[in-house]
Write a structure and sequence with these properties.
single chain
Amino acid sequence: MREKTIEQKFREAVRAVGGVAVKFTSPGLDGMPDRLALLPGGRMAFVEVKAPGKKPRPLQLARHRMLRQLGFRVYVLDNEKQIGGIIDEIRAT
């Protein structure tokens, strides 16, 4: 399965629970996660989408650490089976 397909399924699943998964771009700050998941109740998290078995690059991992140190949740999604669990975790926080 391609990264694009996983990303599409994630967007659809977020929409199904009443949220949006916006494409996140940050000019001048490379390595930021692909999506910002915004769920009802003010719940949010960053989501890095990868093709199955692919891992984040070192710069992406550094950005993930930075965001987590700031108190944000960051997920790496590389399998459509993870989608439900990620959304459940975001909703529970």
